[in-house]
Amino acid sequence: MSTSKPDTATAEADCLRGIGSQRLWSRLMTLGEIGALADGGVNRQALSEAEIAAWQYLTGLAAQGTGRPIEVSTDAAGNLFLTLPGRYRDLPPVLLGSHLDSQPAGGRFDGAYGVLSALEVLLTRAERGLESERDLIAVGWMNEEGSRFAPGMMGSQAFAGAAGIDEIRTVCDADGISVGAALDHLHTVFAGLPRRALGFPVAAYFELHIEQGPLLEAAGTNIGVVSGIQGKKTWRIEIDGESGHAGTLAMRDRRDPLAAFARVAVALDNELGHADEQVKFTIGRVVAEPNAPSVVPRKLTFSIDLRHPDNAMLTRLGMQVEALCSANARPCSVRAVPLVDAPSNGFDPQLGRLIETAASAFGYSSMPILSAAGHDARYLAQVTPSAMIFIPCREGISHSPAEWSTPEQVGAGADVLYATLEAWLQTQNQERHDAS
Ligand code: HGY
Ligand code: MN
Ligand code: MN
């Protein structure tokens, strides 16, 4: 007979007690030391030794015990699951989380804040003796950022069935290490962890994240109720030329892919980057081979990241990429390899209302907001009712060592995540009770 209080216990009081930020903040700062850079940033890329150290930190926190065990497990895609068992193990669980990997010169909030907050919700509920009917799972998705291995969001895509694990395993990093080899290494380090099926029924998904943009801070608003994520298309563009001696190969005889890239990049930026006020166009990675000062390159590879809230506009702009590359790369040959094609999506409005109500219960201001940054919730929304909660970050800066939020903002977001889950569990229990 479980001695803990059922959900119907004075959840109102528990909600209003919220979580606060003290323990969460100190853990966020500790996690930020794993992969820390000298300038205060973080380099904790997917499946790296630093991310493995982050797994060890999180699993250590889960093992500290709260009277009820938190079960640690993983899956073939290298997602991390920390499960607080519910009363009925066969019910589809609720997932809360984000990602532990970072950009190569990232910040200590992007992703990490959502995973640690999710764990904090589970630990706080267990410490308060609150037992839910269903399992509650804090999740860390594999390779959200897509910096070491492109494209990103591999773990959540594999979980949602939006990408195949066999294809994911073949992707290699700049050193030729495949995702498959890195996953096998991770699973060797955590050999004892139970493996869940890759994708399982989920009752709902909640992701808490910094906005990574300036709107909440500019509006002086505490909480963002995220309506959806803007559309995103990415490509890898390969320009093939002919290598040669910088001092002897005549200019008229050259097929220089870097010179071609310069023409292509200007054309793309002019046509796509200035199409309207909402488009986002980025060439974030450029690799010349052999990348030697006195050698005309033989090959140039670069990335395109194109985003827009309007799907028709995103499609229209995306259709210009191949033609713009071909027209400006001559006499080199060019290949455009599409990677991500993710239209703008919408999150569950009912969950959004729970977030809004939870925020106001604490006296936090909130506003609806479209996410300009991508998140794993994009793929979870394809398989279960999903929602995101934002907090402001300083000057909207992210993917940078200067990324920052305050302890108060961190606490407010976690309070709202806790209270939103509480409210969602109440509605589920009510529905199950009414149906019985
Ligand atoms: O690229 C993105 O939008 C995410 O922050 N990785
Ligand atoms: Mn993120
Ligand atoms: Mn990011």
SSE layout:
Blueprint: H1 11-17, H2 22-32, H3 49-63, E1 71-74, E2 80-84, E3 94-99, H4 112-127, E4 136-141, H5 154-160, H6 165-169, H7 179-189, E5 204-210, H8 215-219, E6 223-229, E7 231-240, E8 244-245, H9 257-271, E9 280-282, E10 286-289, E11 295-296, E12 299-308, H10 311-318, H11 321-329, E13 333-342, E14 345-346, H12 349-361, E15 366-371, H13 377-380, E16 386-391, H14 407-435
Parallel strand pairs: 3-4, 3-5, 5-16, 6-15
Antiparallel strand pairs: 1-2, 2-4, 6-14, 6-16, 7-12, 7-13, 8-11, 9-12, 10-12
Helix pairs in contact: 1-14, 2-4, 4-14, 9-11, 12-14
Bound molecules: (2S)-amino(hydroxy)ethanoic acid and manganese (II) ion (MN) (2 copies).
One manganese (II) ion is lined by residues 99, 110-111, 144, 209, 375.
Features of the shown structure:
436 residues; 16 strands; 14 helices; nine-stranded mixed sheet; Alpha-Beta Plaits; binds (2S)-amino(hydroxy)ethanoic acid; five-stranded antiparallel sheet; binds manganese (II) ion; 2 domains; alpha+beta; Aminopeptidase; globular
Description:
The chain folds into two domains: 8-230 and 344-435, Aminopeptidase; 231-342, Alpha-Beta Plaits. Helix content is 36%, strand content 21%. It has 14 helices and 16 strands. The chain has helices spanning 11-17, 22-32, 49-63, 112-127, 154-160, 165-169, 179-189, 215-219, 257-271, 311-318, 321-329, 349-361, 377-380, 407-435, and strands at residues 71-74, 80-84, 94-99, 136-141, 204-210, 223-229, 231-240, 244-245, 280-282, 286-289, 295-296, 299-308, 333-342, 345-346, 366-371, 386-391. Strands 1, 2, 3, 4, 5, 6, 14, 15 and 16 form a nine-stranded mixed beta sheet that branches. Strand 1 (71-74) and strand 2 form a beta hairpin. Helix 1 packs antiparallel against helix 14, helix 2 runs antiparallel to helix 4 (112-127) and helix 9 runs antiparallel to helix 11 (321-329). It is globular, with a radius of gyration of 23 Å. One manganese (II) ion (MN) binds at residues 99, 110-111, 144, 209, 375.
